[in-house]
Amino acid sequence: LNIALLAGDGIGPEVIDQAVKVSNAIAKKFNHEIAWTSALTGAAAIDAVGEPYPDETHAVCMAADAVLFGAIGHPRFDNDPTAKVRPEQGLLKMRKALGLYANVRPTFTFPSLIDNSPLKRERIEGTDLIILRELTGGIYFGERGRKDDGNTAFDTCTYTKEEVERLAKLGFEMALQRSKKLCCVDKANVLETSRLWRQTVQAMEKDYPEVTVSYEFVDAVAMRLVQWPSSYDVIITENLFGDILTDEASVISGSMGLMPSSSIGVHTSLFEPIHGSYPQAAGKDIANPLATVLSAAMMFEDAFGLKEEAQAIRDVVNKSLAEGVVTEDLAGKNKAYKTSEVGDWLA
Amino acid sequence: LNIALLAGDGIGPEVIDQAVKVSNAIAKKFNHEIAWTSALTGAAAIDAVGEPYPDETHAVCMAADAVLFGAIGHPRFDNDPTAKVRPEQGLLKMRKALGLYANVRPTFTFPSLIDNSPLKRERIEGTDLIILRELTGGIYFGERGRKDDGNTAFDTCTYTKEEVERLAKLGFEMALQRSKKLCCVDKANVLETSRLWRQTVQAMEKDYPEVTVSYEFVDAVAMRLVQWPSSYDVIITENLFGDILTDEASVISGSMGLMPSSSIGVHTSLFEPIHGSYPQAAGKDIANPLATVLSAAMMFEDAFGLKEEAQAIRDVVNKSLAEGVVTEDLAGKNKAYKTSEVGDWLA
Ligand SMILES: CC(C)[C@H](C(=O)O)[C@@H](O)C(=O)O
Ligand SMILES: CC(C)[C@H](C(=O)O)[C@@H](O)C(=O)O
């Protein structure tokens, strides 16, 4: 199993280390051989070679069967709106170069963690939804710039019918595997790109007669996700709305530190925790590694078709939760384990 | 008091009726004279004259000291992405024509309703925040269209430094009146318009040394609003982010049906409930009129400087809640009053 390892910034390296330990243990148990190839990305890559997604890193990813990714971003860049090179550019360049067009973000609840949710138990129970976020189009990749001596700024959001179809197809197919409900989220009452989305998805409905499709405005969904998250199954949406809604969805379950994600690509697929680089915790050995470990499980299942291996990882994660071998964010009044201790225990 | 009355669509007319009753009762008690001038807007205006914001309606608004607004939008238009005239165009045209550049949306909790919140009591208690949404710029008003035989769509987001300054100034001033915390929400790690926002607000900081300003990404705020809403005070943001975040914020308090809003304009100011046109309930006399009644209170205070009158309205609303004279959405297992009955009782 040929895996590119992109640890990135902040807590990235620490959580990635634990996923590597667990993956190696699984490989040993099931007789696989993993070839890990590490490569630089994010602020770490800017510091080393002046580029957040160097060509060498791209070559490593292209040669791999899957990419395991930590997190990128550094506060040093956030408060400098004029910085010429920024870690996030690397992320966006990577998404585009690898053709990672669909970000798959599940939100589900761990029974043992349900009381961590900011939502009341009866609101969150039974929630099991997937947001499919389009990841290589929209306002993230349109033309942008300044005019009038820098006093006017603009960004352009663009979508083609093909881009919408590609993402929507995945959504319809996932819905077929699940409870056959698809929700297309847009702002068709204002945006032309949203009207293209709605029109395109409407035209595809006839090919999936078993799937019930609903169309909702992004502002309404931002509400309903908090009110009745369990009413959703598969949600498809464009890049920027997906960015906002997936993050919102991630905290409602009470299991934010545990949510994995994958990005399905033309050239390869990428697996990463949904949390950020959490710079305040970097180097402290306190970050929760479970989302990254569960991302590795997703990788075994989706990139390599190794279901049993994936399930073994999920089982040991559940066991660690049940036995309280958890980092401080989940420990409550009990003993908090270090990031590396959790990784060792799981492995 | 010269007030333009725009009832709009769906439940708009019903809830507006109650606000008129209450305003008239207040005017009588405090010896004011109100001249109401009704005008058409939304789907209602399309049906009558083919235009969602007719010139005549604009003239009525321009001549008024304040506009009291219900809601617009009709599902008939939502699922027809090709409709040429849509109710929302009227809303946008009105915002632009009246120069309503700042939408002020408070989110606070009513102690008696706190258990209606989807959030746990300890998460929501003490929440009292204001989102200031820029309302006449951004992707709502940029160039948009189709190319490639309709297969490519685009929308443009544009902001000028002056637009940002105008909105941010209000934000700084509000923060000074409150707990002196201002949060600027953007996506400066991706968007050029966001970088202009951040840069412009940063440059204004020196004029308000007492205000502590933080800068957060919209995806992070979508999370933190659910996790720790009480950590926010005044939030400023651009049009589309404001659309999503204000709606998200509106449901966390458990008092969605009660939240008023105002839009501060160059020519006049507009007051409206934050809920939508709720077409399923239209004509049934079941919609909660309190948000519209509280919008009238905001109008008395902010447009006419009549604080005592505003407080009298807020007091009677609190009384109706305490005594359980409420519509079905708030009645729980108790008797539900009709929209019109609540209005009569308040008046
Ligand atoms: C870091 C940033 C550019 C990125 C995004 O907005 O896509 C992040 O928020 C994410 O969701 O992966
Ligand atoms: C109806 C729609 C155009 C409008 C908006 O997006 O501004 C509404 O959602 C609002 O927030 O007032």
Features:
Isopropylmalate Dehydrogenase, 2 domains, 10-stranded mixed sheet, two-stranded antiparallel sheet, 14 helices, 12 strands, 21% strand, globular, binds 3-isopropylmalic acid, cytoplasm (chains A, B), branched-chain amino acid biosynthesis (chains A, B), NAD (chains A, B), oxidoreductase (chains A, B), leucine biosynthesis (chains A, B)
* Mean pLDDT level of chain A: 95
N-to-C order of helices and strands of chain A: EHEHHEHHEHEEEHEHEHEHEEHHHH
Find the count of extended strands of chain A (DSSP E, 2+ residues). 12
State the end-to-end CA separation of chain A. 18 Å
Bound molecules: 3-isopropylmalic acid
Within the largest sheet of chain A, what's the order of strands? 2-1-3-12-11-4-5-10-8-9
Structural class by secondary-structure content of chain A: alpha/beta
Largest binding interface between chains: A-B, 66 and 66 residues
**At CATH's second level, what is the architecture of the largest domain in chain A?**
3-Layer(aba) Sandwich
> Can you tell me the CATH topology of the largest domain in chain A?
Isopropylmalate Dehydrogenase
Q: Strand share of the residues of chain A?
A: 15-25%
CA-atom Rg of chain A in angstroms: 20 Å
Largest sheet of chain A: 10 strands, mixed
Oligomer: homodimer
Number of contiguous helices of chain A: 14
Outline type of chain A: globular
- Count of all domains of chain A: 2
Poorly predicted tracts of residues of chain A? none
The share of residues in helices of chain A is 40-55%
